[in-house]
Specification:
35% of the residues lie in helices and 19% in strands. The protein is α+β, with helices and mostly antiparallel strands and 960 residues long. Among the domains are: 48-395, 3-Layer(aba) Sandwich (Aminopeptidase); 404-531, no CATH class; 548-641, Alpha-Beta Plaits (2-Layer Sandwich). The strands form 10 sheets. Strands 27, 28, 29, 30, 32, 33, 35, 40, 41 and 42 form a 10-stranded mixed beta sheet that branches.
């Protein structure tokens, strides 16, 4: 051993004495870009970009700190710009709005903004008054770049554009600035850019790398596209979950820009795409917006033609989903998307042998920016006139949005309603509270007309006749209208090659996303209303003689209250059946903390008050544990003792960064307790005994080995709660960790699965008259639920149909689902709930796993005239592998594109299952419950699993 050490030391000494021949970068020819990015002359008092960065613009990616430093330096040097921080990222980085104009315009920015607001809210504003305002208004442009952090060329082009606008001494730029206020948002996602720019340093080699498959070009998990929580900020504009988005929305509300530029990147072997979009286009966007898109596109095309650059418009770019940056169009902007081929610092080799440089990609973004600004100058007055006309129509009693109002029904889930109010308030949408009960004609969330619909006092009323009518309509309208020709083309593509016109989800209604019952009222509601005010609950004190304290389980924040109380070391109970203790009514899922469970805790009441105030919950003082009448008492089995959740989430590998991030965000935002993200590649080396909850987010493949699954299975059998989301459920089933099955693999025993379905229905619909149980004689006949099902296809036909139906699975549609309202996983949920479903695993159980939530809401049809022939004859209706009981209808589609084939495939399959495995449990979610941080309805099911799972679904731990 000593000899070996000496050998190593001698070898290292010899190596250290050898000369090191560093490879000079000049040994490798780096392709350079010959065209100048900027043309002067420039003010010598303004520091050029290359001097601030220390390298030529476009030769490297500027880091967020370098961009920030440049902006703050220029703010001291130029009277043509004003730099203002409008938000802070999760990681503490500032997001900046850079106002650029003539010194005279900058001096009167408050007046400019005031006049824009008058046009945007034109109550009592005449056409002549509007004309006077418009005549004096400069054009307002919003130029925003790199909302995806690894799409870097936009932000680098923004730096050049800012310098050019503030330093150029040309008459053209002076004239441009006299006519415009240009707001440049140079770096929309500083956290993602920081992650990616750091990776560029890590993966940079001695020789230039032009292979677009290398890490230098792609980055690594979780990639730089997303922000701190791995959210795609270009999907967040209507959900407003992230601080970057919330700050940006406020600024858009302040300025109502006439154009909004959004600089992106796409595949490295592509060219350059810009607006206008092709169909489908959201019906709430004015038709005239497309005209202006073509006007700007024509000028941009001419500028590219002059350079000999290739480009295209439309093709894959559509404008149906309103959560992109095209969100500004609903407020009156002309939205122009740039999609530049993704070129890394070293350039990208093309099949023809050419190398496209990063500088060229920056130049494309820069020229597009300047061209669009020039076009705006020519048409600003006309755009303002159209903007004023649109806003007047939004407020008119004869407009498209004049005679309908949205109503969100009162709920005990105050935190969920508060989240909706907060979102709509950020969007400048006016809301009111109904002060007396009314009856109105209304349409429910299934778009069914109700002639006498009761609106209770306290209903949240949102008239569609208001300034933001178009945005409001697309956020709250239950079902988006898609043109018939779009459906036809989508059907054609689906059948031809499985492609789609739809770039994103086809459903996004906020009330469905939040799981709040709502209706659309026929008519403008403006009577018996009071504006919504900020409501803050404050528990000042509790009864010191109380034996326990409780919060209402209907509210989602009750789960946070329970988790944080356990984090503080308190023993906590949850109630699985509604009761009334003294004068306090407690719903199923309510959380109770008893003094007897927490001896030697003199500060218990004060700490619980603090927790309740943080969660905005009323803390009830419990004076007796005796349930009124036959309701549960506090010493019985319905008051279950919880175990403190110790949570880990698997990440990296092939786990989806989006779903890992959404899970992480949900834990931090809704629970605020300690948890761990652990590398899936280290699972066999990790000490899983530290955790009692393990979350497996959605996967793009299968990250784990057989030994990894064996390790996890052993952990579950010893008492762990394993929660799998979306395609991770497929992996668990395939590796034998769950007895649930996937739909295609269950068709060979369809009758067993259908029998379980009928059993669930019959258990919930037990007849009142059970006189047969009183008979002495042996009953000679028994009714079996499957006896009347004589038309079920055989296995081969079921498999053939399923193969066909899979072709038509949705890209994102709201499906009605039904919950088991006696299961602890459905605390705080309604019997029927919307679930946003894309092409995801459909779960099946023959009874070996509890199916907590199924797709399709069953209703008894009381009107015999509406019954089908089979229902009238009291026979079940066969739907394939499953059947509907006689006299029952199933509601499936609520919103979005759902082909009939997919609807029949989905109905009656499982979304959420739970099963016991050893002393532990496995919980499967067929689709991600935390979609973009906004799906609060399904997120509640997930929070229940996280926090209540260790106490409710596993074998109790007894301390000796």
């Amino acid at each position: 051993m000593k000899l070996m050490n000496w050998v190593v030391i001698v070898a290292l000494s010899i190596l250290a004495s050898l000369p090191i021949h560093a490879v000079e970068p000049t040994d490798y020819a780096q392709v350079t870009y010959s065209q100048p990015l900027l043309n002067g002359p420039y003010d010598a008092n303004i520091t050029p970009v290359n001097q601030l960065l220390g390298f030529e613009p476009g030769r490297r990616v500027a880091a967020p700190s370098e961009i920030e430093s440049a902006l703050l330096t220029w703010a001291k040097q130029s009277n043509r710009l004003k730099v203002e921080a409008y938000a802070k990222s999760h990681e503490g980085r500032s997001l900046y709005a850079v106002y650029i104009s003539s010194p005279e315009n900058l001096a009167r920015l408050p007046k400019v903004q005031e006049n824009i607001q008058r046009l945007a809210n034109p109550i009592n504003l005449s056409q002549s008054q509007a004309n006077s305002i418009i005549k004096e208004l400069p054009a307002v442009a919003w130029m925003a770049y790199s909302i995806h952090g690894n799409e870097t060329s936009g932000a680098d082009a923004a730096l050049l554009a800012i310098y050019h606008l503030i330093a150029s001494e040309s008459a053209e730029i002076t004239d441009l600035l006299s006519k415009q206020v240009i707001i440049i948002d140079p770096m929309m996602n500083p956290d993602g850019r920081a992650r990616f720019s750091k990776e560029l340093q890590e993966y940079r080699a001695v020789a230039p790398n032009v292979d677009d498959q290398s890490l230098l070009h792609t980055g690594s998990w979780p990639f730089g596209r997303t922000n701190h929580y791995f959210f795609d900020l270009n999907r967040d504009f209507i959900y407003a979950t992230q601080p970057e988005t919330r700050g940006r929305i406020k600024l858009i509300n302040d300025w109502y820009p006439q154009i909004m530029i959004d600089g992106h990147e796409m595949g490295a072997q592509d060219t350059f795409l810009f607006a206008p979009a092709r169909e489908p286009v959201n019906p709430h966007l004015p038709k005239q917006r497309k005209h202006w898109g073509k006007v700007f596109a024509a000028d941009q095309a001419r500028a590219f033609d002059a350079q000999g650059w290739r480009y295209y418009t439309g093709e894959w770019f559509e404008n149906l989903y309103p959560g992109y940056s095209n969100y500004a169009e609903y407020r009156g902007s002309v939205h122009i998307l740039y999609e530049q081929a993704r070129i890394a610092e070293d350039g990208v080799a093309r099949p023809d042998g050419r190398v496209i440089t990063y500088q060229e990609s920056v130049h494309h973004q820069l020229l597009s920016t300047m061209t669009n600004l020039e076009t705006l100058s020519k048409h600003s007055q006309s755009l303002y006139q159209e903007f004023f006309k649109e806003r007047v129509q939004n407020l008119s009693d004869k407009g498209n949005y004049a005679n309908r109002s949205f109503a969100i029904l009162p709920t005990d889930n105050k935190s969920r309603e508060a989240a909706l109010i907060d979102n709509l308030r950020i969007q400048n949408i006016q809301m009111y509270r109904l002060q007396k009960e009314l009856t109105r004609v209304a349409y429910d969330q299934f778009s069914q007309r109700k002639e006498q619909y009761r609106l209770p006092k306290g209903t949240l009323i949102i008239p569609n006749r208001q300034a933001e009518a178009r945005l409001l309509a697309t956020m709250l309208e239950f079902d988006v209208a898609i043109k018939p020709e779009v459906y036809q083309e989508e059907r054609h593509r689906t059948l031809r090659d499985g492609s789609s016109l739809m770039y994103d989800t086809t459903a996004w209604n906020l009330t469905m996303m939040y799981g709040l019952p709502a209706v659309m009222v026929v008519g403008h509601m403006d009577k018996h209303l009071e504006p919504i005010t900020s409501e803050s609950l404050l528990n000042e004190a509790v009864d010191p003689s109380a034996i326990a304290f409780a919060v209402n389980g209907e509210d989602d924040s009750s789960v946070s209250f329970a988790a944080r109380a356990m984090e503080l070391g308190f023993q906590v109970r949850v109630i699985d059946k509604a009761t009334q203790l003294g004068e306090v009514s407690l719903s199923r899922g309510s959380v109770l903390v008893a003094k007897s469970d927490n001896p030697n805790q003199p500060e218990l009441p004060e700490k619980l008050v603090t927790l309740a105030n943080q969660a905005q919950l009323k803390l009830n003082s419990i004076s007796t544990g005796h349930g009124i009448g036959d309701l549960p008492d506090w010493g019985g089995s319905h008051f279950q003792l919880l175990a403190r959740p110790k949570i880990a989430t698997l990440s990296r590998g092939s786990f989806s960064p989006y779903d890992v991030g959404a899970t992480w965000y949900s834990l931090d935002t809704h629970l605020g307790i300690r948890h761990s993200l652990i590398d899936a590649g280290m699972i066999s080396y990790a000490d899983l005994r530290r955790y009692n909850v393990l979350v497996m987010p959605d996967q793009y493949g299968d990250s784990l080995s057989e030994s990894d699954y064996a390790t996890i299975k052993q952990w579950v059998e010893q008492g762990g709660t394993l929660i799998a989301l979306a395609d991770s459920t497929r992996a668990l089933i395939n590796h034998g960790l769950s007895k649930a099955k996937l739909l295609p693999e269950a068709l060979d025993d369809a009758q067993a699965f259908d029998s379980q379905l009928q059993r669930e229905w019959m258990s919930q619909n037990v007849p009142n008259n059970l006189i047969a149980t009183q008979k002495i004689d042996l009953p000679m006949t028994i009714d079996y639920p499957w006896e009347d099902i004589t038309e079920r296809p055989d296995t081969k036909e079921l498999e053939r149909r399923d193969d066909w139906q899979q072709i038509f699975m949705p890209s994102g549609a709201f499906i009605a689902a039904r919950n088991d309202m006696k299961h602890w996983l459905t605390f705080g949920s309604n019997a029927s709930m919307p679930i946003l479903l894309a092409d995801a695993p459909l779960l099946m159980s023959d009874g070996s796993a509890e199916v907590v939530t199924r797709y399709g809401f069953w209703e008894k049809d009381q009107d015999s005239s509406k019954l089908s022939a089979s229902a009238k004859s009291k026979k079940p209706q066969v739907l394939g592998w499953s059947s509907l009981p006689a006299g029952v209808t199933a509601k499936v589609r609520m919103s979005g594109l759902l082909w009939p084939e997919a609807a029949q495939r989905i109905v009656n399959s499982g979304y959420l299952t739970r099963e016991t495995v050893g002393k532990g449990q496995v919980i499967l979610f067929g689709n991600s419950p935390n979609f973009r941080g906004a799906s609060l309805a399904t997120n509640r099911l997930f929070l229940n699993a996280l926090v209540y799972g260790p106490g409710m679904g596993t074998a109790p731990y007894v301390a000796l």
